[in-house]
Design goal:
heterodimer; A: 252 residues; alpha/beta; Rossmann fold; 6-stranded mixed sheet; 10 helices; B: 326 residues; mainly alpha; ABC transporter involved in vitamin B12 uptake, BtuC; 0% strand; globular
């Protein structure tokens, strides 16, 4: 379980995350949604100790993220943020291998190699495994990073906008993979998503943020409701039943 | 990471080629020293002395300085995450010179090791200042990063020149800023072995540097302390710059072009690139020094001049072929 209590973060005078308290269930997929600037990514960064919080505490599976040893946390939770920086020229296999760093500090065992090969297969990267990252398309690179996170094999997997730069085919493949990771491997997956239909289709639990606070939270079916979504995004959002799923329509 | 070890036949080839260059370097010079005579034991005592006191130290100094300056550039590029930085484009070399000048003025009697240490501390401070400036000015363009460093180096260099001018030490300053191996004899190059220690250190910590090269978030996610990796990197870079500066004078471009060429060839995984950069740096310096010694034989051109010409050309090529967003 991930427990955040009274977590706050300000940049200068702007309060980006304002006293958020939250309990995310263990297992399954939780999506954090909300308009731009709601504080979703900042919250995720603080939960994963990438960013120090101004106030409050976060525990992940009982470990206090601001106090626990970083390498112990690295075996418990993994975080992937979208980073548009140029990446070093590593091969896909090298990158995925670094996912094992928290366990091996550089010396790979046979078990590690199995993890690496499995992650490469999961993300359908076998044909690209010897290519350099800077020779890949944005979507392929994204998959390589997710493969690394899978090789890291942590109970908690946190992804910040993992569907960025993925086309429909790879976006849905990515979400199916997350679903499998949650159901087959028992992982707890937390995602920041912009596409509320992907969130509604695949998530077990949805947290909606707005203006640095949690605006609403609950099981996906309760959250994908016209009045809930319209209020969060401040626009007309209709919800239709389609193929047994609740689909939001907001294009008009 | 040290996965999937493949034998690297090309690396072995490169080592052999570098060894051959070193051999050539041993036997280029005005005094008549020949390999067969040395091996047969029929060489004149004077030739043996020249060989041991001048030729061997010079070649060793070339190999050590070349390897460690190239590694300094490589480490710098990983921790700054920019392909166009090296000690001479980040104010590091200029700070090392300022430190050496300061200690020469204030404590002229100190042993060279102590002076070198002061110089390294200045280099560390100058590089830290450079990083602080980078943090304050968010730069969108990769080429602006070295430009900021060159400007900082210019300011520090001007300050150094002013002090040197007042203290009548301009000639010494010129010597430090212009790498030259002609003065290397036994007893005057041994500090460069510290550079080799730095190369080994870079190899031991190679995985950490590769991870740091992927960014702060990436590093933290893997449970590594980003600040500590950065600090280790900066210590290596500063030590290398100071050691080379006080021993033979700074060598421009080397730390820039060797790591860039190696990156194009084998990528950026430092476990793989450190051996290549070490060998490549040594080979480059050996070759440039030999050219400098032969081009107007029996006179010499300082290596910094040869390196400047060759380096500028290669650097220009690298600049033009790299997409601006990279």
């Amino acid at each position: 379980m991930i427990v955040a209590s009274n977590v706050s973060k300000s940049y200068g005078a702007a309060c980006v995350v304002d006293g958020v308290s939250l309990q995310l269930p263990k297992g399954g997929i939780t999506s954090i949604i909300g308009p731009n600037g709601a504080g979703k990514s900042t919250l995720l960064s603080m939960v994963s100790r990438l960013m120090a919080m101004d106030a409050g505490t976060v525990t992940v599976g009982g470990l206090d993220v601001s106090k626990a040893a970083s390498d112990e946390l690295a075996r418990r939770l993994s975080i992937l943020r979208q980073d548009n920086h140029m990446t070093a020229r590593l091969t896909v296999r090298d990158l995925v291998s670094f996912g094992r760093y928290p366990y091996t500090k550089g010396r790979l065992t046979l078990d590690d190699k199995e993890h690496i090969e499995r992650a490469i297969r999961y993300l359908d990267l076998a044909a690209l495994s010897e290519r350099f990252l800077d020779e890949l398309s944005g979507g392929q690179r994204q998959r390589a990073f997710v493969a690394m996170v899978l090789a890291q094999d942590t109970d908690y997997v946190l992804l910040d906008e993992p569907l960025n730069s993925l086309d429909m085919k790879h976006a849905s493949a990515m979400m199916k993979l997350m679903k499998r990771a949650a159901t087959e491997l028992g992982k707890t997956v937390v995602l920041v998503l912009h596409d509320i239909n992907f969130a509604g289709w695949y998530s077990d639990y949805i947290v909606a943020m707005k203006d640095g606070r949690v605006a609403a939270q609950g099981p996906a079916a309760e959250m994908i409701q016209p009045q809930v979504l319209s209020e969060i995004y401040e626009m007309e959002i209709a919800v239709h039943e389609l193929a047994g799923q609740r689909i939001s329509v907001y294009y008009g | 990471m040290s996965n999937y070890h493949q034998p690297e036949p090309f690396l072995i080839l490169a080592i052999v080629a570098t060894a051959l260059l070193a051999l050539v370097s041993l036997f280029v010079g005005v005094s008549d020293v020949s390999l067969p005579a040395l091996l047969a034991g029929t060489a004149e005592p004077r030739a043996v002395e020249v060989f041991l006191v001048s030729r061997v130290p010079r070649t060793l100094a070339l190999v050590l300085a070349g390897a460690s300056m190239a590694i300094g550039g490589l480490v710098m590029q990983m921790v700054v995450r920019n392909r166009f930085v090296e000690p001479s484009t980040t104010g590091t070399s200029e700070s090392a010179a300022l430190g050496f000048l300061t200690v020469t003025l204030l404590a002229p009697g100190w042993p060279l090791v102590a002076k070198m240490a002061v110089s390294a501390l200045f280099a560390l401070g100058g590089t830290a200042l450079f990083l602080r400036i980078l943090k304050a000015v968010p730069l969108r363009d990769v080429l602006l990063v070295p430009l900021v460093g060159i400007m900082l180096g210019g300011v520090i260099g001007a300050l150094t020149a002013f002090i040197a001018y007042r203290a009548n030490l301009m000639a010494s300053l010129l010597a430090w800023n212009m790498g030259d191996f002609s003065g290397v004899i036994r007893g005057r190059y041994e500090l460069l072995w510290i550079g080799l220690v730095c190369c080994v250190l870079a190899y031991v910590a190679a995985d950490r540097f590769t991870v740091a090269g992927m960014g702060k978030d990436f590093t933290t996610n893997l449970g590594l302390n980003y600040k500590r990796v950065m600090t280790l990197g900066l210590v290596i870079v500063s030590l290398v710059s100071a050691v080379v500066l006080v021993s033979v004078g700074s060598i421009p471009f080397l730390g820039l072009i060797v790591p860039n060429i190696v990156s194009l060839m084998v990528g950026d995984n430092m476990r793989r690139t450190v051996p290549w950069v070490t060998v490549g740096g040594a080979a480059m310096v050996l070759a440039c020094d030999i050219v400098g010694r032969l081009i107007r034989f029996p006179y010499e051109i300082p290596i910094a001049v040869v390196m400047g010409v060759v380096g500028a050309a290669v650097f220009l090529y690298l600049l033009l072929r790299t997409p601006r967003h990279a």
